[in-house]
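Notes from the pairing session

We agreed to fold both candidates in a single pass and log them together. This is the raw record for the first candidate, unedited. Please don't reformat it; downstream parsing expects exactly this layout.

Candidate A
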Amino acid sequence: MIDLKTSLLAIDVGRGTQDILVYEPGRSIENSIKLVLPSPTVVTAEKVRQATRAGLPVFLDGHLMGGGANTGAIREHLSRDLPVYATPEAAATLHDDPERVRALGVEIRATPPGDAVIVRTTDYMKQEIRQALSLFGVDYPQNVAVAVQDHGYSPHRSNRIHRFELMQERLDAGGWDILSLAADPPLADMTRMQAVRHQAPGALVTDTGPVALIGALCDPEVRRMAKTGVTLVNAGNGHTLCFTLKGREIHGLFEHHTGALEPEKLQRYIRRLADGTLTSEEVFDDGGHGAAISKPLTTDAVVVTGPNRLRLLPEAYQAAPFGDMMLSGCFGLAYLWKVFRKA
């Protein structure tokens, strides 16, 4: 299902880890170079915490990146009455509205004060990955594909609503085909994706949730189930995305925060998604993003991938494309590279 004519570096950037595949033509995927490393947000957070322990100011310099551990560390730093400065682009990591960033206590400025610890903000850790590969004599591939989760530019309204509206718009425009959720190039509104593309011109940059489920379809058993109808779940560290799918057509989907889900609640959502009664308001009011349904799809086949799969759906089929669940997103990126770039 994945047979590229060119080498490819696929990076799936999550909340806890960044999962990396180096695809080389002629080498089986099972024997390809694979890395599961701390996510950029985790790396950035630790650098901020080091400055906090040293009692030093922090200057955020770089690109817009995803939040999570880093924003938590920055808030903790500020709570200790320690200064935080940021360039305008790096400040967007904290919020799309600069006034909201300033309200947190962050000073937005172009250059750092002399005593500040400079902390680089980026979702694309090219320098570090290149160095890691070079230690083992591995060349850095010219072709790059990256997945990040992007809520879209939404300075004055809920980014949960905005993200889900964008997903539904793409589905409507693409006939509810699963590939319609992985536009190449990404929408201009997807500022996190655009920040990665700025650093990696020519890269395929798309969303983490759909690519993990596209990657799960590389599992032959999952492809078989999808022919007649299947519920696909990506239980990530930050978000859980669920599709009902037949062939490549999505019948319904919802997205929630993984930390807010327990097995019983997730099963209830899955049942109501399948019978077409789950509402977007219900998911949003529960702290999630939303739901959208084109038509019901009754099926007993449930497939799960992602690092929280056993906690949330231990009885479901555990998708392991090419024998490696943690690389589902990377396999999805490689598949999309083949489809979109005709490689």
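Candidate B (folded immediately after A)
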Amino acid sequence: MKLLRFLTPLMVIAVAGCAAVGPAPDAAVLTDLAPTGKLRFGVAFAPEPSTFFVAKGADGQPSGVAVDLARDLGRQLGRPVEFLVAPNSGQLTDALVSGKVDAALMPVDAERRKKLGIGPIYFIGENTYLVRPGANIRTIADVDQAGMRVVGIANTTTIRAVGAMLKNTKITPVPSVDEALGLLRAGQADAFALTRDTLAPLVASVPGSRILDGAFRKIDFAVVLPKDKPQGLAYATQWMNDAKANGTVRKAFDAHGFKSAAVAPADAR
């Protein structure tokens, strides 16, 4: 009986561990998701992490929500994870299209749905603006006026949205968050368009700046693969649905300080 009492907790732990692992991937899934023998996962870098962007540690390795989730997917696949770190999601899109990356998490829009295989949404964000100190901007509507200068990250869902929406504003694309912040600090841009959760930790890097209330659109963040990877996309879809349901996404948000960020609903696609 003593032995039974000792073994029972271990059996519970073992069962719980097995429950967290999905079905073993078959050869077609591995061909789609790990054709080189490892999962090559794309992540985007910013000065501060967000639910999408990652940070770089002193050793140069990325850390953040996307890294934690990528490692969970790699564990499910039974394959090591290799990270491609890019300055923006536009470059990640190009890497997926060219086959240099097997999967990523990123914001999606109609343009990306034409090019990529889109899985479930894990987070729904808001696009807004970080405004430089002294700019005559109080509301989102104030941004769309002659003489205003907006900066955004090149080839991203956000800059495409502001390009379609703003009629009177000069829009300048730059390759990275760092460069956008540099333009704000230098007084060469009046507002930086990005997601609220990404902008929030950046306010301190532009003294006197502020984030506008409200949002000019909602933005979906999803797991994505190259086009024409049906077995891989089906597996990634099940993995993300499970990760939302079993608390894996919630744990990743909390671990990196995003306790107020809501995991997207189960039916978000």
